[in-house]
Specification:
Blueprint: H1 6-22, H2 41-56, E1 61-63, E2 79-80
Antiparallel strand pairs: 1-2
């Protein structure tokens, strides 16, 4: 959770989105992977519920929060604005 002054919010958001777009999500045994799967189904459920709650409470999901592989506990990094 970060708070960024208004004058810096757009450049900050742009830089974060660029970096998030380059992050490789995947298998933990792949040396190119930067974001691996969550440790358990319970943790996966906690994260996906938190993302849904953020949207329900008025947050705007600017990027991420997707589950790219339905057979794993992968969730892409999420940015709310």
């Amino acid at each position: 959770h970060l708070h960024v002054q208004d004058e810096f919010s757009e450049p900050f958001k742009t830089n974060v989105l660029v970096r998030m777009g380059r992050a490789r999500v995947g298998a933990p045994d792949d040396p190119e992977t930067e974001v691996g799967p969550l440790v358990s189904e319970a943790r996966f459920q906690e994260i996906t519920v938190a993302i849904e709650r953020g949207e329900q409470e008025g947050g705007t999901l600017a990027a991420g929060g997707e589950c790219p592989d339905p057979d794993s506990y992968l969730v892409t990094p999420a940015l709310f604005a």
